[in-house]
């Protein structure tokens, strides 16, 4: 089980998502914000969970939690469900829908931790600096390819010299 409110409410024992869910990240951030707002009014308030939010808003059990379950992460909920969830969590429905699509189709090839960190750092920069960072990374990649070509050429030259002897 996990410490994240949405994951804790929806995961079976021992069941872990294969990769970080964009939807769960968004839902957990929204729940944390709602919990913080609740604690401003009532300092001893417990963390808000999806199940509790369903009860507070009068939604049927599972109305908000069901799309978050690992078994349902391969599906994109109906627009009405996304809108209901977004309203309940006080987040933008288009952003939530995009997160569901990212989980459904993925965000491209899975990245290594270093690739993800580089993407995160670049994403934190203003657009002009993002372009500069990309040019720097492209130059570094080209330098690396040049080094590999030089190494390969030296290896082939050495191999050619050794086979003719």
Which structural class do you get from the secondary structure elements? mainly alpha
Order of helices and strands: HHHHHHH
Overall pLDDT metric: 82
Q: Tell me, what's the shape?
A: elongated
Distance between the termini: 64 Å
| Radius of gyration based on Cα positions | 24 Å
Q: Which bin fits the share of residues in helices?
A: 55-70%
**Low-confidence parts lasting 5 or more residues at pLDDT below 50?**
10-17
Q: Structurally, how many domains make up the residues?
A: 2
Tally of DSSP β-strands: 0
Q: How is the biggest beta sheet arranged? A: none
- Strand fraction equals under 5%
Question: Helix count?
Answer: 7
What's the quick description here?
With 165 residues, the protein is mainly α.
Would you spell out the secondary-structure blueprint of this structure?
Layout: H1 5-10, H2 22-41, H3 50-57, H4 79-89, H5 93-105, H6 113-124, H7 127-164
Region (Disordered): 1-20
Biased composition (Low complexity): 1-15
Mind explaining what this structure looks like?
This protein is mostly helical and 165 residues long. It folds into two domains: 101 residues, no CATH class; 52 residues, no CATH class. It is built from seven helices and no strands. The relative contact order is 0.09.
Features:
165 residues; mainly alpha; 2 domains; 7 helices; elongated
């Amino acid at each position: 089980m996990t410490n994240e409110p949405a994951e804790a409410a929806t995961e079976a024992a021992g069941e872990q998502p294969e990769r970080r869910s964009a939807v769960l990240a968004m839902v957990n951030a929204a729940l944390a914000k709602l919990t913080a707002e609740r604690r401003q009014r009532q300092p001893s308030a417990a963390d808000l969970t999806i199940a509790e939010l369903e009860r507070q808003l009068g939604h049927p059990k599972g109305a908000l939690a069901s799309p978050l379950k690992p078994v349902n992460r391969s599906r994109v909920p109906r627009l009405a469900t996304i809108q209901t969830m977004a309203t309940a969590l006080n987040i933008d429905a288009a952003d939530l829908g995009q997160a569901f699509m990212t989980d459904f189709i993925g965000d491209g090839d899975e990245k290594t931790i270093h690739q993800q960190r580089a993407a995160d750092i670049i994403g934190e920069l203003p657009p002009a600096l993002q372009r500069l960072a990309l040019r720097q990374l492209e130059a570094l990649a080209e330098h690396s390819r040049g080094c590999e070509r030089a190494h390969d050429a030296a290896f082939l030259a050495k191999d050619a010299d050794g086979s003719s002897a």
